[in-house]
Amino acid sequence: xxxxxxxxxxxxxxxxxxxxxxxxxxxxxxxxxxxxxxxxxxxxxxxxxxxxxxxxxxxxxxxxxxxxxxxxxxxxxxxxxxxxxxxxxxxxxxxxxxxxxxxxxxxxxxxxxxxxxxxxxxxxxxxxxxxxxxxxxxxxxxxxxxxxxxxxxxxxxxxxxxxxxxxxxxxxxxxxxxxxxxxxxxxxxxxxxxxxxxxxxxxxxxxxxxxxxxxxxxxxxxxxxxxxxxxxxxxxxxxxxxxxx
Length: 245
Fold this sequence. Notes:
- This protein has helices spanning 26-34, 42-50, 66-74, 87-100, 152-159, 179-185, 187-191, 204-209, 214-223, and strands at 9-14, 17-21, 56-60, 79-83, 105-108, 111-112, 117-122, 143-150, 169-173, 195-201, 226-228, 238-243.
- The strands form three sheets. Strands 5-4-3-9-10-12-11 form a seven-stranded mixed sheet, with helices on both faces. Strands 6-8-7 form a three-stranded mixed sheet.
- The model has no long low-confidence stretch (mean pLDDT 93).
- By secondary structure, the protein is α/β, with parallel strands linked by helices.
- The radius of gyration is 17 Å and the shape is globular.
- The protein is 31% helix and 25% strand.
- It has nine helices and twelve strands.
- It has one domain: Rossmann fold.
């Protein structure tokens, strides 16, 4: 007999880090079963950058924080800022942070884009990872109105962070089609070579219904002096960028 997976499962996500997940949610279920193999080689590339001098990780489109938890569990000195516009998903991030006493994580219940404003978020139902500000042709379900969005540059100023003089930051951008908008909003930081590396989801389908493309992602990064890191076995759907040396 088919059994419905439980909504509450208490697990050790990474050594010493416990979380309550919803196994009916595809992203939470998939990240648990695959662990560091999820979207491989993303975890290992992030860890490589973090171990080569990164001071801060920006998890843009964090969902329940899988990649944040990965780096926090592996790198005892890194500071993390997680951005997640869905308030329900963000409450799970807050709960995991408090349970594990992770004061190196700051949580921001906002979206990032190329201009400030208020947008409607189309929330994923069976997969919280599908939530998008774009007009997803297959998502006519639950909507969350009046969600705050701002540029990365504006957020930096409000958070009191200055650009590093050498590459010291790492970012992961997974925002279901809004990737180019986020990148345009962080142009000053990109031009200043603030980042050791960036992971950017490059999904043609989601980018296209947001009026963009994979080629535009590559063009923006090249225009700011970042080159694509070539990885032989990469089935993650992500692109990896590092500053041209």
